[in-house]
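Hi C.,

You asked whether I'd gotten around to modeling the 163-residue construct. I have! Everything is below, sequence then structure, no commentary in between.
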Amino acid sequence: MLHNEPFRIAVNGQHEFDILPEHAKNLDFIPDGNRRFHLLHDGQSFHAELVDVDYAARQYTFKINSSKYTLKISDHYERLVQKLGLSIGGSQKMNTVKAPMPGLVLKIMAEPGQAVQKGDPLLILEAMKMENVIKAAGEGRVKAVKIQQGAAVEKGQLLLEME
């Protein structure tokens, strides 16, 4: 059953481990606000700060006790695509940018006609009292901005059209 397929987590591109969805639900990972979290693991308490997010790559960088850890999360389908050699390398064109989560649009940095490269900031979305910079997943040109600053958006809502 695919719902029980494990997620693979790679830490700093080196150490990898699998975690089942039902175990992930039981993690003691509590948001403190402003990209800070409280984490309990094996009876020890840690404070973590989310310092960078790449939603397209499913990569999250945390600072825990003054050390940085980059976590890359992949599921069964992503690993299958890689195993078959079907993953896209190099530059990647974007057609749309959609909201990765519900939130409030704080600032729009992209404008129609603007050329963007992978990693360029496009807008800032506030969700759960955290500011999330939505970055370009690949290269392209902004065709249209479909939202306004201050607008509330839903997960999956179209934010930008690209060409």
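If it helps when you're writing up: The chain has a mean pLDDT of 84.

Thanks,
B.
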